[in-house]
Design a protein that fits this description.
The structure holds 2 protein chains of 2 kinds. Chain A is α+β, with helices and mostly antiparallel strands. Chain A has 4 domains: 6-110, Sulfite Reductase Hemoprotein, domain 2; 142-291, Sulfite Reductase Hemoprotein, domain 1 (2-Layer Sandwich); 303-395, Sulfite Reductase Hemoprotein, domain 2; 410-554, Sulfite Reductase Hemoprotein, domain 1 (2-Layer Sandwich), CATH 3.30.413. Chain A has helices at residues 6-28, 33-42, 65-78, 101-110, 143-153, 225-239, 250-257, 259-276, 280-291, 303-311, 313-322, 350-363, 386-395, 426-439, 442-445, 507-521, 529-536, 539-545, 547-554; strands at residues 45-47, 52-57, 62-63, 82-85, 90-93, 127-128, 168-171, 185-192, 195-202, 214-221, 323-325, 331-336, 347-349, 368-370, 376-382, 410-411, 450-453, 467-474, 477-484, 496-497, 502-503. In chain A, the strands form 4 sheets. In chain A, strands 16, 17, 18, 19, 20 and 21 form a 6-stranded mixed β-sheet that branches. A 5-stranded antiparallel β-sheet of chain A has the order 1-2-5-4-13. Helices cover 26% and strands 25% of the residues of chain B. Chain B is built from 3 helices and 5 strands, in the order E-E-E-H-E-E-H-H. Chain B has a 5-stranded antiparallel β-sheet. In chain B, a hairpin with a 5-residue loop joins strand 2 and strand 3 (29-30). The A-B interface holds A 26-27, 29, 32-33, 47-52, 80, 94-95, 97-99, 344, 347, 415-417, 424, 426-427, 430, 473, 476-478 and B 13, 15-20, 56-57, 60-61, 77-80, 83-84, 87-91, 93-95.
Chain lengths: 555, 101
């Protein structure tokens, strides 16, 4: 893991000192709310529906036990004993007092964390594949590059007042687990003639105008990354619309300018940018790479794993669902579901955080990851340790075997917390998960991505859910629209709206009808919901969602 | 013809806690919606909002929210305002937490 150097340490500590002073000046009346608001947002502090909310960056989703324990401490000392992991690999604390926030930021700085640029029209937390450095299908670990981008983008003077926020995601694997095609810039590691580089995708995004990113460069040599990304940002910074907030993201800039012209402008800017980088970035990258050296994998028998699998059906179910292939054959990537049926997606109590930290320290080469799907990952677990890991997780309600199933729902905080929301998300997710648990159908239904957003800004990624749910306010009543056929992977697609929305108490039965129709229509157990939807089109699913219309048509 | 004015309360978030608060007729800030002053006159609403805006040392983002008379005082009209009177639905946190004790 990357460790702060003296520069990082001084920078973060200075920021905390500045913010402490800013809070004091706000309280004394020296700063108005209008003056203070952009300052608090620069430090991740929002004012939400019921309280302040502090959004803390977890760069490229990587934590160690020390950081996780500190998050637990913060949750207990200054919040209500839990934290909420988000779709951008951040953690949010929902109940801090304004006067406590400087102390929280100091506590974060103690473990080399911060909340800088988790809000505002800047480059946000750089996200990465949550299996980075562990996945069997990976070309290279994308995190050193993500760390380089983090250092480059943090407090970058040219990019502190962009037309709108800017999100970068990176994957080192051909199987895109980082939703790179729905980011302002998506980077996919590729090789050409044995040389490492990136496919550069630009102008993806969700929100009110969802767009799949377009390939700006199919191969960018690794050494050119920062100057090229800087050329993209500089072009966007000039072209991007500042007259209309809803047209200010780079996806609109690229769409309105045209990909070819936008590319020409970036390429025209690129040489001058490249000339400014004298190789210092590559030296820095080499140092960062050393910090991400793979752990010393253990060579030991895996018999204990096979024995437990054979003897314990609960363990077997968990192993079948929550483990992924590791690059080392004796290891597994274990995903800890934060989606226990009926619980809040992405929430972990302080006790749970400590257990996960302990397990990482004891069995996981001291690494933890946060996924954009709001789960926690132990990326390096020797298979012989998996039964012990599972037993420890089970004791604190963290052994739910539902990864990638209908109850593994992404849900934004929605109107239970968020000031922008137009409807609730969390209780809809809770009810869907509980319903399918009662029906004992989710393993039969198989792989499914269900994603819920409580407003059009789409933090819950509903557009790229196989089933997406969007909560809206229709004439003063919560109303839920369903989209079908979305996909957040390398075959990214935006889901299509199925038809009129459903009331709060109608949405769960509607999803049940939809999935029962899938079970009836699929060719075999192997055909997933998304495959069935692609084969059949929307008609049979719409018929299940809107049976009344079918009856009217037949009459 | 201009639209008929619908009754309002002045609401905001408390500067330090961030908690939802309401302006009362006797110029206090209450955490309870039913203690709010129900304002039925548009000109008076503007005066009360200005009064709230003049207290940046205590409140953030005051605005007028629709309300209606109820048995124990004003009640919220929109579901968003109803949630603000209670707290989130997934945990008994916020105002509902205080009420449970």
């Amino acid at each position: 893991m990357y460790r702060y150097d003296d520069f990082d340490e001084a920078f973060v500590r200075n920021r905390v000192a500045q913010f402490r002073d800013q809070v004091e000046r706000r309280l004394s009346g020296a700063l108005t709310e209008e003056e203070f608001r952009p300052l608090r947002l620069m430090n991740g502090l929002y004012l939400q529906l019921h309280a302040y909310m502090l959004r803390v960056a977890i760069p490229y989703g990587t934590l160690d036990s020390r950081k996780m324990r500190q998050l637990a401490l913060i949750a207990e000392r200054w919040d209500k004993g839990y934290g909420h992991f988000t779709t951008r690999q951040n953690i949010q604390f929902n109940w801090p007092r304004l006067t406590d926030v400087p102390a929280i930021l100091d506590a974060l700085a103690d473990v080399e964390m911060h909340a800088i640029q988790t809000s505002g029209n800047t480059i946000r937390n750089v996200t990465a594949d949550h299996f980075a450095g562990a996945a069997a299908d990976e070309i290279a670990d994308p995190r050193p590059v993500a760390e380089l981008l983090r250092q480059w983008s943090t407090d970058h003077p040219e990019f502190q007042f962009l037309p709108r926020k800017f999100k970068i995601a990176i994957t080192g694997s051909p199987n895109d687990r980082a939703v790179t095609r729905a980011h302002d810039i998506g980077l996919r590691m590729v090789t050409q003639d044995g040389q490492p580089g990136f496919e550069v995708v630009v102008g993806g995004g969700l929100g009110r105008t969802p767009m799949i990113g377009k390939v700006l460069r199919d191969f960018l040599p690794q050494a050119d990354l920062l100057p090229y990304v800087e050329a993209i940002l500089a072009t966007y910074n000039l072209l991007g619309r500042r007259d209309n907030k809803y047209k200010a993201r780079i996806k609109i800039t690229v769409h309105e300018t045209g990909l070819e012209e936008f590319r020409d402008m970036v390429e025209a800017e690129f040489p001058a940018r490249r000339a400014l980088f004298a190789g210092g970035d590559q030296e820095l990258l080499a140092q960062i790479e050393a910090a991400f050296a793979p752990p010393a994998f253990r060579n030991a028998p895996v018999d204990a794993y096979e024995t437990a699998r054979a003897a314990d059906p609960v363990f077997r179910a968990w192993a079948d669902t929550n483990l992924a292939a590791h690059r080392h054959p004796d290891y597994a990537i274990a995903t800890i579901s934060l989606k226990a049926h009926g619980e809040t997606p992405g929430d972990a109590t302080a006790e749970q955080m400590r257990i996960m930290a302990d397990l990482a320290a004891r069995y996981g080469h001291d690494e933890l990851r946060i996924s954009h799907e709001q789960n926690v990952i132990l990326p390096h677990v020797h298979k012989s340790d998996l039964p012990a890991v599972h037993a420890a997780l089970k004791a604190v309600g963290l052994a739910t075997a539902n990864l990638g199933l209908v109850s593994d729902i992404i849900a934004c905080p929605g109107m239970d917390y968020c000031a922008l929301a137009t409807a609730r998300s969390i209780p809809v997710a809770q009810k869907i998960a509980q319903r399918f648990d009662e029906l004992k159908l989710e393993h039969d239904i198989g792989p499914l991505k269900l994603k819920i957003s409580g407003c059009i800004n789409a933090c819950g990624h509903h557009h790229v859910g196989h089933i997406g749910i969007l909560g809206l306010d229709r004439a003063g009543v919560e109303n839920y629209q369903v989209t079908l056929g979305g996909d957040g992977t390398e075959t990214a697609a935006v889901g299509e709206r199925a038809g009129p929305g459903f009331a709060y108490d109608e949405i769960v039965p509607a999803i049940e009808r939809l999935l029962r129709a899938y079970l009836e229509q699929r060719e075999s157990r192997e055909e997933t919901f998304l495959e069935a939807y692609r084969r059949l089109g929307p008609a049979p699913f719409k018929a299940a969602l809107y049976p009344e219309e079918g009856r009217r048509d037949a009459a | 013809m201009s639209r008929r004015f619908t009754p309002k309360v002045v609401t905001a978030n408390a500067l330090i806690e961030g908690d939802v608060i309401y302006l009362t007729a006797d110029d206090r800030w209450s955490k309870q919606h039913h203690e709010a002053e129900l304002i039925e006159d548009e000109a008076h609403a503007e005066i009360r909002l200005l009064f709230a805006q003049a207290q940046p040392d205590r409140v953030v983002g005051p605005y007028l929210a629709e309300a209606r008379p109820g048995a124990h005082g004003p009640e919220p009209v929109h579901f968003r305002e109803a949630f603000r009177t209670r707290g989130p639905s997934n945990y008994a946190h916020g105002k509902q937490e205080a009420e449970a004790h």
